[in-house]
Write a structure and sequence with these properties.
With 194 residues, the protein is of the alpha+beta class. Helices cover 17% and strands 34% of the residues. A 7-stranded antiparallel β-sheet has the order 2-1-7-8-9-6-3, covered by helices on one side. A hairpin with a 2-residue loop joins strand 1 and strand 2. It is flat, with a radius of gyration of 21 Å.
Length: 194
């Protein structure tokens, strides 16, 4: 089975990283009570941390690393499309050379932290009317003639839609910038799929 390349923002890995780990974190408080007992309180999920290690090799090895470093310096979250795991909105928080670079070989490590934007989604901008609409209008770029749309039904996933319509998840995400979390699509949403 050939896997699609990993992608983050504008960077597409020429070959997927060699190792990739995901750490899930839950915050738990422990309270000591008399006679050697304790009580635990679940404080909720923490951030999800994605780490990996890989190599760039061949004549363009160092150039590939410099392109990845350029994306690292581009602030803010972006969509990480992994060839196997679910995609996620993440911050690129660490990039390191794991050895002295050579002209034709660079070994590197990276770390991404998943963004939790539920708090941001619930905020209402100052001065926004209670009806949920602001006074100004947002310019909308019309879809090209012949664009294909799909109305989401229960059970749909972006991966399945990409397979059905013969496109990539990355293309669907570019065509639908309103999707803040690519793992959450809701029945009734109208998405461009071609």
């Amino acid at each position: 089975m050939e896997l699609s390349p990993m992608r983050y923002k504008s960077f597409i890995w020429p070959h997927n990283p060699r190792t990739y780990t995901i750490e899930y974190e839950r915050q738990v408080a422990v309270h000591k009570i008399p006679f050697g007992r304790y009580a635990m309180q679940d404080l909720g999920l923490g951030r999800r941390v994605m780490r990996g290690e890989g190599e760039f090799y061949g004549p363009s090895a160092y150039e590939d690393f410099k392109k990845l470093a350029t994306v690292f310096y581009d602030g803010g979250p972006g969509t990480l499309l992994h060839p196997v795991w679910q995609s996620a909105q993440v911050y690129f928080v660490e990039l390191a050379l794991a050895q002295e670079p050579r002209r034709d070989y660079v070994r590197y490590t990276f770390t991404f932290w998943e963004e939790y934007d539920k708090y941001r989604q619930e905020l209402v901008p100052v001065g926004q009317e209670s009806s949920g609409q602001s006074g100004g209008s947002t310019p909308v770029t019309p879809a090209p003639e012949g664009a294909v749309y799909h109305t989401v039904v229960a059970g749909d996933t972006l991966w399945a839609l990409a397979q059905t319509y013969g496109v990539t998840m990355g293309e669907i995400l570019v065509w639908n910038p309103q999707l803040k979390n690519p793992n959450v699509i809701l029945p009734g949403q109208r998405l461009r799929v071609g």
